[in-house]
Amino acid sequence: MPNVHEIIRDHVSLSTGCIDRLYVNGYVPTLQTSGQLIHFMRSHLGQPIASPAVLRPMHDRLVEGVEAFAQRHPVPVVHFVRGERKDDIANAHRARFKGREGVVLIGVAQERAWSFKSSKRRGDTNPNMVFFDFSRQPVFVKHYYFYVLDPEWGPAFLKIGTYMPYPVKLCLNGHEWVKQQLRRERIGFESLDNGFVSCRHPERLQEICDRLGPDDVQAFFDRWSHRLPWPLTTHDRRAGFEHRLSLWQMEVSLTQVFDAPVQGRHFFEEVIRENLDLGRPNRVSLLFPTRHTRRTPAPRFGYRTRVITDGVNPSLHIEYKRSHVKQYFKENRALRTETTINNPIDFGTTKALRNLPYLRTLAVGVNRRLLEAEQLSHNCTLSQKALDRLQRPTLEGGQRAPGLRFGDPRVMALLHALCTFDHIQHGFRNHHLRRHVAALLGLSLEQYTAGRMTYDLRRLRLKGLIARLPDSHRYTVTTYGLRIALFCSKLYLRILRPAWPALLDQSPDDIPRPLRTAFLNLDKQIQNLCHEARLKLVA
Q: Is 97 a member of any domain?
């Protein structure tokens, strides 16, 4: 069966990296605390007493404005029932929509949101005086969903809360934005749901995908916040009570379309099996830009790798804190690798919209590194020449390089430690690898000394398994080193170590039948290969 690298190299007809779904939060920075709310009512609205009665007319004005908007255009209004799929309802209305742009549907739903609740209290000196205290609490309030057809973004929606501080949510799709730009440039393409099967100019397609930025999101918001009924008036906005956008969730995908989908389906299940441990703390840094050490506390939301099966279609999920990368086959045509960032703070940045380019670059890197890890794990076979070079003493650049004998406990511990991937991005020092190797050998650091580790590092470096970073005492694992480590570790841990005790310590009749059968089949195949080799030699 071809490996991952060969399939991607030879059978991918189109590869597209693009921002997929974007969930953007709109909030009013000057209306986030009870003090700011009281200032709004007293100083801006001119009300001497900050009371919920002051806010009621604003709520009613918004509701009446939405009703008037729906009648004036006209736009259907649907009250969503719990359990209904809102997108399915919206798509049905969108299919019947005749215009090129505009509001397709207004949905109404009662949903939880953080809003201000008031509590009444009497004056300390005058009991006849009534005051109100305000606090932010999660409450169920009415929300309006405006499903629109936008000239730049295509299908999208805005969700507006009807209670102070009037939260707004935007749902956009980067692939739909790209489709609109392709149509404008008259570039032909074939859609794959929210992706592409083919494009007349693939290079231009990727250029447009890379161009999508914060200004395009802001332009969408500005356009519709002035066209739709809005909770805050023009007077309010000019006074500084205006919504600001922040990133709530973003998805960045890499879609690789196969010329023969069966090519991809076969290897994908094998890839899943080989990479179930990528979500472990000591390996998650292979994918996500985080440095993990023994002292690093476990994140609140943990690390996890899951395989989820929907019918007969499996998907691989690797989670890090509140973010994750997912991989699955899309419509039996393409391999979709998709990184979702739910909280930019997990990666050392803020939720500000201006950070979208940085987060896209970060997510693109996660997608790329997952594929690289899969290629390494799936394509780890070695030639006889490579094995001989590994095991025998050789001269490397005029220096004698001792052999790394397969099966030697110390060598196997070294190779297995290289497979942990926890030092790939930032490199590792003598003591980092020494700690791993000592633990695998069951030795203390006093028994496995720094001098022994220095000797082993020299062996690994001369054999080309690791490389020293310039002007530092750190090393990185080479691609060749990873292939060596993975091949030898798999062979030793999965076949030889479990099998030899059973073969040596038991009589043939006591060996489990599946194991005995497997080794008989293996011996048969080896005999066949030897026979074929002799025939070729004679010929």
A: yes
